[in-house]
Amino acid sequence: MNASNVLDLREERAIPQSRQRRDDMTTTLLRQWDRATGRDHERLVKRLVEINMPVAQRLARHYAGRGLAAADLEQVACLGLVSAARRYDPSRGDDFLAYAVPTIKGELRKAFRDVGWVVRPPRRLQELQAKAWTAEADLVQSLGRAPSPREIADHLDVPEGEILEILGIDGCFAPSSLDVPLGDGESTTVADRQGNLDDGFASCEARTVLGPLVRALDGRDRRILELRFFRGWTQQQIGDEIGVTQMQVSRLLSRIFEQLRAGLVEPAA
Predict the structure, then answer these.
(1) Which of 93-97, 110-114, 158-162, 262-266 is predicted with the least confidence, judged by mean pLDDT?
(2) Minimal CA–CA distance to 48: which of 107, 103, 1, 109?
(3) What's this model's pTM, rounded to 2 decimal places?
(4) Comparing C-alpha atoms, which of 155, 178, 157, 152 is closest to residue 167?
(5) Can you give the residue ranges of every domain in the chain?
(6) How far apart (Å, rounded) are the C-alpha atoms in residues 252 and 89?
(7) Which distant-in-sequence residues (6+ apart) come within 8 Å of 105 by Cβ?
(8) I want to staple 235 with a disulfide (CB 3.0 to 4.6 A). Which of 5, 150, 217, 249 is the partner?
(9) 162/131 Cα distance (integer angstroms)
């Protein structure tokens, strides 16, 4: 074997700073993979993890600020890197990161799925998302590239629309603030565009339910309701209008309310 293709694990302990050096060292390690067994294989795995640790740390930083501590995210990312190193099949090629990066992302997303939801989507979508992440990692290694939503859907035998749906629930980890401006230089925020409660809905419901009952009242009772609630007259003014005392108007209103209440309850009974 050419000496340039063998990485001395005892001497080369530094973590490479450049991407090219990291890629070269990773390729050299993978070429020793098939011949390594036992402790030698464990040392190769350990060194592969050390070399690519900056990648895991960078991915962890990408997910920072979404509700989980940075230290926890980095630990999850490193565990994902270890898992990828142990499961990687070098016979599929030397591009270790094409497999490792989706695996690390999958572990990070799994952490958010378990403890990081701010808005928790339906359980069905959570479970499908976990399956999609696993499928994505498997397809990356078999295809040699990132799979499309259609390919993930075919792999899982689910409609493509469901895969597209779960792609949109990452925002449940860190929903956008309602105070964020809608554009550069704009003072209008998301909250400014939110609708307000419309009291007209309650009024519409009341009219629909009470309409038949009010129409069933006699003429004087309907007149009393009109003067009291549509014109805003006092009981004394109503009494003067229909020729009774204020006390009688109060009793008439109580009787009308009781009649309407009974009419509302009777259909349910």
Answers:
(1) 110-114
(2) 103
(3) 0.43
(4) 152
(5) 3-172, 200-268
(6) 88
(7) 59, 80, 133
(8) 249
(9) 12
